[in-house]
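Obj: model holo form, ligand = beta-D-glucopyranose.
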Amino acid sequence: MRRNVVVSVLALALTVFMGVSVAAAGEVEVLHWWTSGGEARSVAVLKDLLEKEGHTWKDFAVAGGGGDTAMTVLRSRAVAGNPPTAAQVKGPQIQQWGDEGVLADLSGVAKAEKWDEILPKVVADVMKYKGKYVAVPVNVHRINWMWVNPEVFRKAGAKVPNTWAEFEEAAGKIRAAGFIPVAFGGQDWQESTVFESIVIGVGGADFYRKAMVQADPAALSSPTMVKAFERLRSIKKYTDKNAPGRDWNLATAMVIKGEAGMQFMGDWAKGEFTAAGKTPGVDYLALPFPETSEYFLFNVDSFIMFKQKDKGARDAQDAMARLILQPKFQEVFNINKGSIPVRLGMARGPFDEPAQRSMSDFVATAASGGLVPSMAHEMAVFPEIRGAIFDVVTNFYNSDMSPAEAAKKLAAEVKAAR
Ligand code: BGC
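Output (holo structure tokens):
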């Protein structure tokens, strides 16, 4: 016993002498927008794991689906010289924060945890600034989903749609039976979430890339885009009068409760069904958005970390980054969140059928060219261009602007935002 004590004191002295530091407990203030039922359950998993390692989690939740409010708050905190320790920031915006020179270098933890080996290269590249990891990815969400209440469809005698014509037919029957066909949240990001699924369904992956990733004026003003606007307009007649301003999770609740037949939303909606104790294939159906089964609009959540002077805070950041990519967290978090793991090689068994389908489709669409980044969820273009697209889509949806005029405006406003 005594001998052990001496040995460990010696080991400690040696560690200090060699400059190897012992991890200190610290606080992480984490900015995120995960405030719905399913989202809150998911983020709680990370908080618990960090607290088990002795660190303190200071929650900085800014409500607002899609995260635009959170990003505004983050910018004002950063401008005031007081950013949080970590923030949910995605896609090309990571490079913009890198340009500011405020991000912490996560190379140490990335190397120790072999991030280059456990992450798909396309994802890893987005997490690096000038070759160094400055962000940690959490998951992969798919946008182009349709969430169905089978009981409502049954009562209305409607068939679950694969094509646009079938959607219109089913929606008409559901309305005639006294239900709301489409649970819709009238907020700009939700309108654009639905719109980008329409765009890929109408135009295919190459057209989507030209329009929504390269922001090509010819694609943006094309007849294909006019057709996409026509479809968006046709959804409106199947929504209820309380849709304007409605949060996405309240729209999901309408499907869960059997007030509405379906919702078009990314698979964070599945987190709401899961939190409500619902079983896929029984209480609800998760299917691709009409005419998009061969495409996968992806959305990867990630956290950037800001430079810290305090060693405890730096150690807490490293711990958070390490824990996020560990298999246990990847499993439990993604089951709650409705997404699939971003870490490669995870066992599929614990995941439900929609998640397993997503895993297969992710691989299949990566091979076929059908895997494309979500514009609405900040994977594809810089915020200025995304903002211009959102403006045109929401102005169109909430007015009587013609589809032809909307496509023309889209090209013009995107050009002005460049
Ligand atoms: C995020 C999801 C989130 C959703 C709704 C998306 O942009 O990637 O994690 O659940 O917005 O807030």
